[in-house]
Amino acid sequence: MAEEKTKGCAPTKTSATSSSKALAPAPSPEGSLSRYLAEIRKFPILEAQEEYELARDYAEKGNVKAAHTLVTSHLRLVAKIAMGYRGYGLPIGEVISEGNVGLMQAVKKFDAERGFRLATYAMWWIRASIQEYILRSWSLVKIGTTAAQKKLFFNLRRLKGEINAIDGGAMTPEQVAKIADRLGVQENEVEVMDGRMSTGDQSLNAPMRGRGVEGEDGGEWQDWLEDSTDSQEAVLAEESELDARRQLLMAALAMLNEREAAILQARRLQDEPETLERLSEKFGVSRERIRQIEARAFEKLRTSMTEQAEERGLIEG
User: Fold this and answer.
1) Does a structural domain hold residue 66?
2) Is 282 helix (H, G, I), strand (E, B) or coil?
3) What separation in angstroms does the CA of 257 have from each of 246, 254, 295, 300, 306?
4) I need a labelling partner for 296 at 20 to 30 A (CA). Which of 115, 135, 244, 279 fits?
C-alpha cells in the first residue's frame, strides 16, 4: 500500500511544468515594482555557452526547466525595455507582463544554431508584444493598423520633443511637414495621429451642458452629430425623378424603328459606345449613314421625351 501510495504521488509532466512556471515571479499591476525588480535581479545572467546548451536542450528535448532558466535570466531585459514605454499612461506592471509574453514566444522560437544570443533575438519579440498591447489599450477605435502608422504612433512624441512642439498646442504646417518627411508618411496622417494621441476616447452619450434651452440640459453629444447623407425625402424625390425619366425614355424608344433604336442604344446608351466602323459593317451601310441615323434617332427621342414631359406636367411648355 505504501508503495502504491508513493507511485500515486509521483509528479507528472504537467505538475512539473506548473511547478517550474511558478518559480518565475510574475509582475502585477497591484504589486510592488521595486520588489519585482529586486526579485528578478536574483536570476544570474547566462554565459554564451550555457545559454546555447539550454536552448538546444529545450529545442531538441522539450526540457521545460531549460526554457524556464532562459526566460528568468532575461527578465531584466524585459523590464529595461518596458521602462521605455512608461509615457503611454498604462500600468508599468501590465507592460512588463506583456513583454514577458513576448520573451516566452522568443524562447520558444529561438534557434541557437544561428550563432547569435537570445537577447538580440528576444528584444524584437518583447518590443512587438508591448507595442501591440499599447495599441490595443490606447483607444477603443483601432489605431496603428499599418507598419507606417505604428512607426508614426511610437515616434511622434519623440520627434515633437526634438522640434519643441510638445506643449505648443497644434503643430505648425512646417512642423507637420518635417515630421512627415522624417517618418515617410503623409502630412494629414501626422495631423490625425497627433489629434488622436492628444485626446482620449469620449462617449457620444456623454451629457452636454450649457447648449440647451434655459432650464434644460443640452442633451447628449450624439444629438448634435450631423448626418452627411441625404434625407429620406431627398432620396425619395431623386428616385421618383429617375423613375419618371426612365419611363419617358422607354416610351420614346418604342417610337423608333428597329434599326434606329439599335444604333442609338449602341452609340448613346452603353458604357462603351460602339464605333461607327463596326456598326457600318453590321448594318451594311457607310459610317456616314450610321452617323445620320444616330443624329435623326436622337432628335426623335429628345422631341418625344419633351412632349411627354409637358403632357405629364413634369416641365413647363
Assistant:
1) yes
2) helix
3) 19, 8, 14, 11, 19
4) 244
160 Cβ partners below 8 Å, 6+ apart? 166, 171, 175, 179, 194
| Structural domain for 184, as ranges | 144-197
With respect to residue 284, please indicate whether it lies within any of the assigned structural domains.
yes
Q: Indicate if 149 and 186 belong to the same structural domain.
A: yes
For 156-172, the pLDDT digits (tens) are 777 777 777 666 567 77
Q: Which band of pLDDT confidence, cut at 50, 70 and 90, is reported for residue 129?
A: very high
Percent of the chain with pLDDT over 70: 78
Angstrom distance (rounded) from CA 185 to CA 155: 12
Question: Which pTM does this prediction carry?
Answer: 0.52
Query: Domain tally for the chain?
Result: 3
Helices 258-268 and 287-311 cross at an angle (nearest 10°) of: 90
C-alpha cell at 18: 506548473
